[in-house]
Amino acid sequence: MVGTVSTYRSVIALTGPLLPLVSFLARLPVAMSQFGSFLLVAQTSGSLATAGIVGGALSTGQVLFGPVLGRLADRHGQRRVVLAAAAVNAAATAALVAGALTHLATLPLAAVGALTGASVPLIGPLARTRSVALARSAQADEGVTGAVHALEGTLDEVSFVFGPALVGLASLVAHPAFALAGAACLVAVFGSAFALHPTAAATAGSPARERRTGGRRRPPAVVHAVRGSLALQGVMFGACQAGITALTIRLGVPDQAAVVYAAMGIVSAAVGLALGALPARFGLRLRWRVATGAALVFSAPLLVTDGLWPLYAVVTVLGAAYAPHLITAFALTERAVEPARLATAMAFAASSLVAGQAVALVVAGRLAERYGPSGAFAVAVGAAALCLALALVTRVPAARTHGAPAGEPPAEPAGGPNGAPAGGSDAETVRQPDPDPAYAGR
């Protein structure tokens, strides 16, 4: 326990105490906008179909343009990109509120929703990128870097619990428009504060000369596998949302759906924060397999769950598998991608999660209508099984697959040509001068 606290103190020493708070408040609008836009449009238009179209357009915009913003941040630095995105997103969110309240037609309202999604300033992925850059600059050990991922994952989880809760509270007390208006204010103020924080200098972007000489290399296969795993995690999120909603409606307590989902998120966040206490010998390959295996085992009881308290019990336990998988997936991405393209890779990873969730909400929602809650939960269990299969068959490098960061001694290749593994599923590709013991022999 003392060692874990000390590790997190090292993380705060790198970022400063203000950055995690600012980045958390800047993440809330992302969690609020999807749910808030659906409630607002459903209430003002009286049509769930219209609300679904606008919500789908918002998700599509985020999925398609998130990697674009990540690439711009890699090239030009986070400060300018986040400032511009926060300003556009605040204006687009305000326009969405105005359009819904004035009963704008579905097509133009969906276009505003798409712009809102496309301009999401990616605070979560960029905060990870920035904190990792700070850790590298300080030549922090792998325990601190792992704690960075655990802390960022926890902030994501907590934001996605409190965001919808704030929307629900605002809708109950007043109107969903107040929730989205608040989201616009949050992104304008705290998105800008995140951009202007002094630590943004750690992610100033890659000069054009450096990009030309560095060439364009394909990401390792593990990166694509991790994106697939995150998309399947998004499918689990969406399917669980649909199944929980369907079951609580069947039980006559629809208001409990948000509470059940929040309980899962709280447990997930707590376990994610505790992940920083794992000893270094538990490598990322092992963590990936354990987390996806746990998700499959813990989600299977959903297929036979038919009461409110059993639902609480199963979903709460299932939450314990979510954060470890997300944290491990982003950590694997960080290890496999060269620093100059890390923001792009993190944005792709986050977009994969959003895409999976959006698709699952549509598919699992229809299955829940036709076959009941178990139809939606079957999608979640199937996605968990595929996640585990990916974790089992994917070759995870035993060390970083990119060169050493600037200022560190160059890495020496081990294995086949161009740093390719010489053989075996865990053969090292490029080993740092001081290899991480979490990967030795894994």
User: Judging by the overall fold, what is the CATH architecture of the largest domain?
Assistant: Up-down Bundle
Assembly state: single chain
CATH class category name of the largest domain: Mainly Alpha
Number of domains: 3
- Specify the overall morphology: globular
Radius of gyration, in Å, reads: 21 Å
- CATH fold-type name of the largest domain: Growth Hormone, Chain: A
Q: Which spans have pLDDT < 50 for at least 5 consecutive residues?
A: 403-442
Structural notes for this entry:
It is a single chain. This protein is mainly α. It is 74% helix and 1% strand. The chain has helices spanning 2-15, 18-45, 48-76, 78-101, 106-118, 123-137, 142-173, 176-196, 208-214, 221-250, 256-274, 284-299, 308-336, 342-371, 373-393, and strands at residues 412-413, 430-431. Strands 1-2 form a two-stranded antiparallel sheet. Helix 2 runs parallel beside helix 4, helix 10 (221-250) packs parallel to helix 14 and helix 12 (284-299) packs antiparallel against helix 15 (373-393).
Q: What is the strand and helix layout of this fold?
A:
Elements: H1 2-15, H2 18-45, H3 48-76, H4 78-101, H5 106-118, H6 123-137, H7 142-173, H8 176-196, H9 208-214, H10 221-250, H11 256-274, H12 284-299, H13 308-336, H14 342-371, H15 373-393, E1 412-413, E2 430-431
Antiparallel strand pairs: 1-2
Helix pairs in contact: 1-7, 2-3, 2-4, 2-7, 2-8, 3-4, 3-5, 3-14, 4-5, 4-8, 6-7, 6-14, 7-8, 7-11, 7-13, 10-11, 10-13, 10-14, 10-15, 11-13, 12-13, 12-15, 13-14, 14-15
What would you say about this model in short?
With 442 residues, the protein is mainly alpha-helical. Helix content is 74%, strand content 1%.
